[in-house]
Write a structure and sequence with these properties.
Number of strands: 17
Distance between the termini: 21 Å
Helix content: 25-40%
Structural class: alpha+beta
Oligomer: single chain
Shape: globular
CATH architecture of the largest domain: Sandwich
Strand content: 25-35%
Number of domains: 2
Length: 226
């Protein structure tokens, strides 16, 4: 399930985020990559303990906590604090798969990467190339979203970032452990939630909505592992 969340960051938050990143000291992105990914990763990244990364990451998590679409789609149990990367000319990230379990800087627990997230921070017309490519059942899907928009996709997906040929691509990326592990089950719950919300706006009939809400919560009760 690939989900596009629009305007996760408002223009003011986006501008502050970019201004902070413009002043940051970037490191070689290969430092955080696994053995196989290191050979195909060419970008720069803020270290996990960088003050700017921690400040901006905490702000993004607070914003997502109030985003109803994110909650409905991800059903988050744990979130790896967002990290930040920078792709400039000739930078890319070849075909790879994210590790199944991620440590959390400064915390004793680890997170299962059920869902991967990329929050775009650069306008798409400010750089060429840099599309995020996910290999879906029906073939590759290319994603290049407006600044402030975010995409969610299964952590199990093989994916890549195409070479940037000009400009600069800034993004936040992170992983979510969902209360519902299986992508197909999250998809069922998300579509059911959307249908309930749509019906609620179209009809004053409440009995059917109560029944549908009961189905949703019973499925969540059956499948969720908080």
């Amino acid at each position: 399930m690939l989900i596009h969340l629009k305007q996760v960051l408002d223009p003011e938050s986006l501008e502050k985020c970019r201004a902070t990143l413009e002043q940051a000291d970037w490191s070689d992105g290969r430092g955080s990559a696994g053995y196989l990914s290191r050979a195909v990763k060419r970008n720069r990244q803020l270290p996990d303990d960088h003050p700017a990364a921690r400040e901006l990451g905490e702000k993004i998590v607070r914003i997502l906590d109030g985003n109803q679409q994110f909650t409905a789609a991800a059903l988050p149990a744990k979130i790896v604090p967002p990290l930040f990367n920078c792709y400039e000319e000739d930078n890319s990230y070849g075909r790879h798969v994210d590790g199944a379990i991620r440590p959390v800087f400064g915390a004793p627990h680890r997170v299962r990467t059920d869902i991967s997230a990329t929050l775009f921070l650069s306008e798409p017309d400010s750089y060429s190339g840099g599309e995020l490519i996910m290999e879906d059942t029906y073939g590759p899907v290319e994603v290049k979203l407006p600044a402030g928009d975010m995409v969610l996709y299964p952590g199990s997906s093989v994916h890549a970032v195409k070479p940037v040929t000009s400009g600069r691509r800034l993004a936040a990326f992170f992983w979510i452990q969902s209360m519902v592990r299986g992508d197909h089950r999250r998809s069922i719950l998300y579509e059911l939630d959307k249908a309930i919300q749509r019906i609620a706006t179209e009809t004053p009939e409440q009995e059917a909505l109560v029944d549908l809400a009961g189905v949703y919560h019973n499925l969540l009760r059956e499948w969720a592992d908080p």
